[in-house]
Structures are given as C-alpha cells and as structure tokens.
Amino acid sequence: MKTYTTSMNLNTQNTKAEGTIIRNCDTIRGCSNNCVSCYAKINSMKTEFHIPVEIQNYTGKVDPNALYRIGTVGDPATNWSHTESLIKSTGFKNFFCITKLQSVAGYTGLCNRLQVSVDPLNPEHFELTLNHVEYLLEFFPETQIILRIRSCASSTLWINILQRQAIDFAKKYNLTVLETRIRFRKKSDLKKYCICDKYYSFRKNFFRPHKGISFLKIDSPICDKFEKSCKGCLNCVNLWKEINNAQPYKKSA
Ligand code: SF4
Fold it and tell me: What digits encode the pLDDT tens for the residues 108-134?
C-alpha cells in the first residue's frame, strides 16, 4: 500500500469519461468518509485511500474546452480553503465539485456549482449533508446545487425513510436531483442493508442494479442509466446547462 502523491495530471480521463469533455480531477485525493461501496475507494485499492492527500501541483495545462469534475477520488470539502486556493491558482473556469459536504468551513462561494452526494446508508452523514446544503442555500444563494441521491432497493425502513426525505428536501428547495444507484461490492453489504437482490445482478465485479431501473421513482435523471459510460449519459454536462438559467433559491420573507 502507498499513499497518493501530491502531484496530479490535469488532463487524464478515466475510461468511463473517455470521449467526453469531462476531465476527472481532484484537489484532495483519498477520503476518510468511508462510504459504503465507495466507487473511488474500490478503485484505489493499491492506495491508502482513507488518508487524504492535498494536491500541491498539477502537470499539464487547463484545457479551456473541458469541464473539470473535481472530486473523483477525494472530497474537495475535506479542506475548502485548500480546494479554493488551488482552483484560483490553477485558473479553472469550467468546473464543478462533487462532494458529500461534510464540512463548509472555509467555503467562500468560489466553487459555485456543486453536485452534493446524499447518502441514505449513513444517517449521520445524511443529516450533516442536508444541514450544510441548507446553510449554503441561505448564505450562498448563488451556488448552484444538484443533489446526487444515492439510491438502492432495500427493505429496511430507515433507509427508505431517508431516501424519501432526500426527495422531499429536493422538492422543498427546488433542487435538481441526479439519482446515483449504489453498486455493492460485497455480498455482506447486501445482507447488512437488506438489499432486495432481485433488482441486482453481479456484473463486472459489482452487484449492479438492473439497467435502466430507478429506485427513487421520481422524474429525475439517473447517472449512467444504461451503463454506456459518461459518453452515453452526459448528465454531468447537460444538467448544468439546464439549470444555468434557473433562479437561485431565495429564502422567502
Ligand atoms: S451522471 Fe452521467 S456523465 Fe455524470 S458521472 Fe454519471 S454517467 Fe458520467
């Protein structure tokens, strides 16, 4: 096992995003949130994933035609001050952050497009995430937020309640939802969270939901709905365009 280095190439794409304008990028690599079936953790098995390492320098130049997706194998909210100063010094223009938003300390609004991951498998994280979203809506109303609701088919009551709460929260604040269906690596996790396995099959090392299926059952886009990779989805590109003209949330008087 080794830890991440403090250097990162700016213009690598993972295979999923190949052929798109999306570039996967991080300001911090590794994460201590320890989410169930974390995609990044699973893909970082050779690395000490739980130890976040701050990127100090990028190799390569910012591609003005690319959309940088910051938060691929780490959470930019781990240290907003570091994230913001790195973004400023690098000169990113077209970017958004993916975050579980477990912290808003040091956030100044510079990262004004966020895809916030809401996790019904972790009640503590879930509550903190939504509290922080409310904080941003109140104090940084120009920040555009998409809720990435992690979804699954479970017979556990509290998981279903939290999924419902996330949907209601999005409705209350008029937030766009992107459903991200959880893939499970371990059979023990299927058992632990009472996952209804009739909706899943084991493909490419994961228990994956059947193609095209929605667990939230609302009219919202689904990440990689038909497993054709980002090229066949492009929600990360198109959703920002769609909400760009939408009015930011303003608290009613
Ligand atoms: S929403 Fe679409 S474009 Fe974004 S990560 Fe998922 S598959 Fe890729």
Answer: 999 999 999 999 999 999 999 999 999
**Secondary structure E strands in the chain:** 7-9, 22-25, 28-29, 53-54, 57-59, 67-70, 95-99, 113-118, 144-151, 176-181, 200-203, 206-209
Q: Which of 68, 80, 160, 66 is nearest to 120 (CA)?
A: 160
- Mutate which of 223, 228, 229 for ligand 1? The one with the most ligand atoms within 8 Å of its CB, which is 223
Q: How far is the CA of 227 from the centre of ligand 1 (A)?
A: 10
222 Cβ below 6 A of ligand 1: no
pLDDT at 245: 66
Q: Percentage of residues in the chain with pLDDT exceeding 90?
A: 86
pLDDT tens digits, 198-252: 999 999 889 999 999 999 999 999 999 999 999 999 999 999 998 876 655 444 4
Sign for the pseudo-dihedral over CA of 143, 223, 198, 201: negative
- Tokens for 7? 């250097």
Domain boundaries, the chain: 7-243
For ligand 1, whether the C-beta of 235 sits within 6 Å is: yes
What does the buried/exposed string (b/e) look like for 128-161 if buried means 16 or more CB atoms within 10 Å of the residue's CB?
bbbebbeebbeebeebbbbbbbbbbbbeeeebee
N-terminal to C-terminal alpha carbon distance within the chain? 54
